[in-house]
Amino acid sequence: MLPYVAIRMRARHRRSGSQAGLTLLELILTCAILLILSSVALPIARYAAIREKEATLRHNLDEIRDAIDRYKDAADHNQIRVEMGSEGYPPDLKTLVNGVRLGTSSEKKIRFLRRIPVDSMTGRADWGLRAVQDDPDSRHWSGKNVFDVYSQSTSTAMDGTKYADW
After folding, report:
1. Whether the model pTM is above 0.90
2. 146 lies in some domain
């Protein structure tokens, strides 16, 4: 009988002293807390990805608009030759990438963009264009010059505005 009592006392001592395992209640509470935390973190991660795309869209729009403005400044200062009726704006976005010759007889070219940025909402470098002659909210480009660009996306931003209105 003595070996049985010794084994039983050893088992009781191990369990009460170190608490080696978790009870079922502790395990359920831990799982519930992890479930609540993960359900809170998932929407935050989703909105962070949308915010990143929106920031990229704003940056790309600013980059193209800045290139258009630099082209217009160069045309206004007679550094580049422009077509009559273009109001000094580029004929298309490819002209900003391909570049134009400085002056009348110069071999030097000036480029205003390295490449046409991608619209982060549509995933393509297909931007909506507006000419000086177009209405400010027009979605159809007259094809004469590029005064402004906008996203072709029909989605709504997190702030409630349309991406095409940025």
Report:
1. no
2. yes
